[in-house]
């Protein structure tokens, strides 16, 4: 029979690691099932993080995640590098099974599996990720001060990114595959009124080009004529949406139409007592390391309150 634990945290990154720190300090010795390939979440693939409080000179994403993990280990958290296949509820307990076939039982579960950026899947995207290709304007916009920038997408998030990036870039070009945008009218009107923002519609990016210095240009194809033109750019921000990593809890907790786990108000409580969720698998708006960490703290405190009620 699997050892019964107070808490299992599924996922890592700022939300999972912060929850582990808080639960560890409270004496609950959580098990963190951190993921098979990229424990630490999206920040493992991020170079310098300049907007996480406490690091006036910035910090490398992998270093920040390693520090959080070691801090959680200091307080008794245990880590397993694997993915979760299923979470099943049996009375008031939860059975968590990993892809490698290990099974664990817990009184509470915190889901902190995050989300992944939807990618273009074109040549040059992976090669120049972190060297001109980005998926987060607030994270990386500063690095393109005075340089030409492209934003790929047509929804509100793309227009928000374009507006933010116009503070830094010499120009911002929004590239969208149609001539109509999914973004709200007010967002579109605001962008059209910004003299730094240009538009390339009915167009798709076929390839990203660059050199040792990073991205230099894009091959952009007109979807109507097939004509290909070269567009100068040093920054390429892909804003075509996110996919929350929540498929494994389908049928256990409630999710919205996009797959994000729904929680009760400002809490981290799901519709299933004893199951909590935090970070980018819940948050479709802010998606920042610091907001995920704060939500991980709240999940741990919510879980502690739940555990306390079990023993009252």
UniProtKB/TrEMBL annotation:
What is this protein identified as? Thioredoxin reductase
Tell me, how does this one assemble? Answer: Homodimer.
Residue ranges annotated for the FAD/NAD(P)-binding domain, each copy included: 6-296
State the PROSITE patterns in the record. Answer: PYRIDINE_REDOX_2
Q: What reaction gets catalysed by this protein? A: [thioredoxin]-dithiol + NADP(+) = [thioredoxin]-disulfide + NADPH + H(+)
Xref: PANTHER family: THIOREDOXIN REDUCTASE 1-RELATED-RELATED (PTHR48105)
Q: What is its EC number?
A: 1.8.1.9
What superkingdom does the record give? Bacteria
Keywords, ordered alphabetically: Disulfide bond, FAD, Flavoprotein, NADP, Oxidoreductase, Redox-active center
InterPro entries the record matches: FAD/NAD-bd_sf, FAD/NAD-binding_dom, Ferredoxin-NADP_redctase_2, Pyr_nucl-diS_OxRdtase_2_AS, Thioredox_Rdtase
Q: How is the co-factor bound, per the entry?
A: Binds 1 FAD per subunit.
Per its Swiss-Prot or TrEMBL entry, what cofactor is needed? FAD
- Residues passing through the membrane, by range: none
Enzyme superclass (EC) = oxidoreductase
Q: Which Pfam families match?
A: Pyr_redox_2
GO biological process: one example: removal of superoxide radicals
Instruction: Identify the GO cellular component terms for this protein.
Output: cytoplasm
Q: Has UniProt tagged this entry with the keyword NADP?
A: yes
Which Gene Ontology molecular function entries are recorded, alphabetically? thioredoxin-disulfide reductase (NADPH) activity
Return the similarity comment: Belongs to the class-II pyridine nucleotide-disulfide oxidoreductase family.
